[in-house]
Structure formats: C-alpha cells, structure tokens
Design goal:
alpha+beta; Alpha-Beta Plaits; five-stranded antiparallel β-sheet; 7 helices; 14% strand; elongated
C-alpha cells in the first residue's frame, strides 16, 4: 500500500456533508432559540444524579422552560450569531442550557434554586436576559424575584383593593342607616 497524498489526508480529516449539514442545522436551531428567548442560563451540570436531573427537568418543563445539554463549539457559533458572544468564555466542560420564551425569571430562579441546593455539583456558568449578559449579582437578584404569575396576582390584588374597600365601606354605611346589604325579597303578587 502506497503513501497517501496530502489531498487524500485532508479529505479523510474533513467531516462528510451529512455531518456538516446536521451541525449547521443544530447551530441554526440554537441561534433561533437564543434569539427567541427572553432569558436563559448556561449550567455546568457535572455530578448531578439522574433523579436530580429528572426533578429539575420536570420543574423546568412545568414552567415553560426548554432545557437541554448542548455542545460547546456549536453553542459558541450560535451565541455569536445571536449577538451574545459575551458568553463564549464559559463554554467549556459539561454545559446545559435552560431558556424561556415566556417568563424571563423562571429559568434563572429554578436553576439558581437547584444550584443552591446541589452545591458544587450543579453550577451556573452564565445567564442572559433580553439580549444582555448578566453578572453573578444580577443573577441572584433576579432569582429572588417572584414568578410572572405571582407578579400578576400582586398587581391584580393591588388594583382590586380600592374597589373591595369601597364595597365594604358602602355596606357599613348602609347597615348604619338601618338598611340591609342583602337584596330585598320581592313580594309575590296577590292571588286573584
């Protein structure tokens, strides 16, 4: 068997078209995921058990958060295309990604809770919100916020409080004047 030419060696080293197109599709899907996300978290998940991972995934899915293990190189290409190249430096070791297109607080809060519970076995590498890379202090502050549904409930409660107070006040005035809060029963028409 003769020696291989330089072009034959290069040809063997090049990935085939099928693999290349699959990788391009993954990069495109990740780019779209980053662009559509209101927030996301990159995590080093080394050391968590299958049971812990399953519990985390259930909680994330219940909150509308997409979670998956990602390849660092492909993620780097996608981050650069999405304008989040500030996250490139954390792409080493094991990496998973939690993103939300809805509630921006959910992925940060849930992942931060697990990072606190699991210690060194599950660490937040970086996070982003609305296209901005967050620092560690911002991540902790955002994780402490209540979720979107809790915030909606607070706003609704604040809006309904004056109306409820007015109704209570009017009811008390009516009772003081000798009236009743209960609607008066209509008298039945007399039988003929």
């Amino acid at each position: 068997m003769g020696a291989k030419t330089l072009s034959e060696v290069k040809q063997e080293a090049m990935p085939n078209e099928k693999i290349l197109s699959e990788k391009k599709a993954i990069v495109e899907a990740l780019t779209e995921r980053f662009q559509n996300a209101t927030a996301g978290v990159l995590v080093d998940y080394r050391g968590i058990t299958v049971a812990e991972d399953t519990a985390l995934r259930r909680e994330l899915v219940a909150s509308g958060v997409e979670y998956s293990v990602v390849k660092n190189t492909l993620t780097r290409f996608a981050l650069d295309k999405a304008g989040l190249s500030g996250l490139d430096s954390v792409l080493n070791g094991t990496t998973s990604l939690a993103t939300s297109a809805g509630d921006p607080i959910a992925p940060i809060r849930i992942v931060n809770d697990y990072a606190t519970k699991l210690g060194d076995r599950f660490n937040i590498k970086a996070a982003f919100m609305d296209g901005k890379v967050l620092d560690a202090k911002e991540i902790v502050e955002i994780a402490a916020l209540p979720g979107k549904d809790a915030l909606y409930a607070k706003v609704l409660g604040t809006m309904l409080a004056p109306i409820t107070s007015l109704a209570v006040c009017l009811g008390q005035i009516l009772e003081q004047k000798g009236g009743s809060v209960e609607p008066a029963a209509e008298e039945a028409p007399a039988a003929e």
